[in-house]
Design brief:
Length: about 120
């Protein structure tokens, strides 16, 4: 699957986002090394700090299914390009410091960056 298809899966997933507060629906599609795709959406909460981003949802789904090796993650935001937040960058760094991150306003304008560019010198024990 190429990056554009992965982005399209993230976009499709975003329709399931639970975002009644921000109205900013986000979808993520995470591709494991074996080709399996795990999608995720943002899940907001009336206690705003309890909100979970789409990227972390996708990772938690994959990790809890036993997946450990990842190749690429695409993110779609309904209100424009969604770059992963700082918490998500560190969360992903734990499992995939070299993962490719695909973002963009639409499928014609994709940006592809390695996570270690988005989070240089991330923390690890
Ligand atoms: N959000 C994500 O799910 N991923 C991102 O990359 C950026 C932000 C969510 C969190 C919140 O539900 C909404 O977007 C607005 O911040």
């Amino acid at each position: 699957m190429d990056y554009r298809e992965l982005y399209d899966m993230a976009k499709k997933a975003s329709s399931n986002a639970y975002a009644p507060y921000s109205k900013f629906k986000v979808g993520a599609a995470l591709m494991a090394r074996n080709g399996k795709i795990y999608t995720g959406v943002n899940v907001e909460n009336s206690s705003f700090g309890a909100t979970i981003c789409a990227e972390r949802t996708a990772f938690v789904k994959a990790i809890s299914e036993g997946e450990r090796e990842f190749e690429a993650l695409a993110v779609y935001g309904s209100g424009g390009e969604a770059l992963p937040c700082g918490i998500c960058r560190q969360f992903m760094y734990e499992f995939a410091p070299d993962i490719m991150v695909i973002t963009g306003e639409d499928e014609q304008h994709l940006n592809v960056r390695a996570l270690n560019k988005l989070l240089p010198e991330g923390f690890s024990l």
